Amino acid sequence: MLEASLRQNVERATGRSVGAAPITALVQNASNRSYYRVGVAPDSWVVMVMPPDAALKSEEVTQGGTPRELPFLDVHRYLEKLGIRVPKVHAWTPAEGRMVLEDLSDQTFEKALETQPKEALYRRAVELLAKMRARAEATPDPKCIAFSRKFDHALYDWELHHFREWGLEAWSGKKPTDAERSELDRHFNAIAARLVAAPVGFTHRDYQSRNLMLKGGELVVIDFQDALQGPRQYDLVALLRDSYVELERPLVEHLVGEYIAAFERETKERIEPKGFLAYFDLLTVQRKLKDAGRFEFINRVKGNPGFLPSIPASLRYVRDAFARQPDLKPLQALCAKYVPELS
Q1: Segment 259-279, tens digit of pLDDT
Q2: What is the predicted pLDDT for the residue at 52?
Q3: Considering only CA atoms, which of 126, 124, 146 is closest in space to residue 136?
Q4: CATH 3.30.200.20 spans which residues of the chain?
Q5: Do 50 and 101 form a contact (C-beta atoms < 8 A)?
Q6: Which fold has domain 2-102?
């Protein structure tokens, strides 16, 4: 029955008969959405299936109340206006919670790195990110949901405590003392205060190797429904401190420089590299602690252990960033008491 209904979704969306086209379930990852490929390339489509109670909700974005429109479509429309390549939407059926999308194949950025020159691919991803950010800053759209929510103090602090709950306490099987918990609270509050002081703009939120696809020589951006307002470095941290693909520090710094140069070409704005990179490292501490905790949460709460192998890389990034933020040494020492990998 599921396969027949998926074929019907495609036929209604495209006006084409697909007959007994094969159905392939695609990798779901951490999402509450399921994806199915209908047909065989080049005559194939992807159907995204969302639980009825989750279509308008985000698991990690809670600001702004219930959106009037599906965030995926809202942000999709905005990115198209910016000239950013996103998957074509053939149809959206709210009553069924199903969307028929262009099939982008299985060629993620992560897979492409296995056969294509690494630095050249990353340069393209960095330039695309700079273009997206620059155009969004030049043409904001208050009607787009991404402009109604942002990384504020509460969200940064919540994500840090998400690490404390799942990456420190659950993972180690121990709880900090009351005094240590108070110290963690102070450090997390201070980090959130420093991060929230930066100007914000359109931020994808998860711009990394599994959310970029390659099709016909183009980079295609996906999984953008949680976009919000954040600092310029946030998406760079997601890309260059990706838990699925580790990059050496010299290449990271080179690519940060490429981003700055690309952003300047788009805007004529000069960015001071040293301060930009220091903020990048501070954001790395916050984002990758959160990721480590989130992966354990997905394992224990969602029953999906697939992200556990990515925890060590996340912690290595944090350890490296701690070394570049000497004022955070007391926090590093406290966290390393429970998570020795941070020592």
Answers
A1: 999 999 999 999 999 999 999
A2: 74
A3: 146
A4: 2-102
A5: no
A6: Phosphorylase Kinase; domain 1 (3.30.200)
* Contact yes or no for 206/238 (Cβ under 8 A): yes
Q: Is the CA virtual torsion 149, 153, 154, 160 positive or negative?
A: positive
Handedness of CA 103, 304, 155, 286 (dihedral sign): negative
pLDDT tens sequence across 107-156: 999 999 999 999 999 999 999 999 999 999 999 999 999 999 999 999 99
Please spell the DSSP secondary structure of 56-92, one letter per residue. S--SS--TTSS-SS-HHHHHHHHHHHTT---PPEEEE
What sign has the CA pseudo-torsion 40, 220, 311, 298? Answer: negative
pLDDT band at 30 (very low <50, low <70, confident <90, very high): low
> In terms of Cα–Cα distance, which of 49, 56, 60 is closest to 203?
60
Q: Provide CATH 3.90.1200.10 ranges for the chain.
A: 109-342
Could you tell me which CATH class the domain 109-342 is placed in?
A: alpha beta
Tokens of 117: 């020159």
Q: Is 26 helix (H, G, I), strand (E, B) or coil?
A: coil
Strand-pair partners of 219: 214
> 239 — phi, psi (to 5°)?
-80, -50
Contact 85, 75 (CB under 8 A): no
Largest CA distance in the chain: 66
Residue pair 311/292 in contact (Cβ under 8 Å)? The answer is yes
Distance spanning both ends of the chain, measured CA to CA: 53
CB neighbours (10 Å) of residue 12?
A: 13
> Do residues 20 and 11 lie in contact, with contact meaning Cβ atoms separated by under 8 Å?
no
Contact assessment for residue 286 and residue 159, using Cβ atoms and an 8 Å cutoff: yes
Say what the pTM is: 0.93
Nearest to 130 by CA among 323, 42, 277, 261: 261
- Helix or strand (DSSP H, E) at 48: strand 43-49
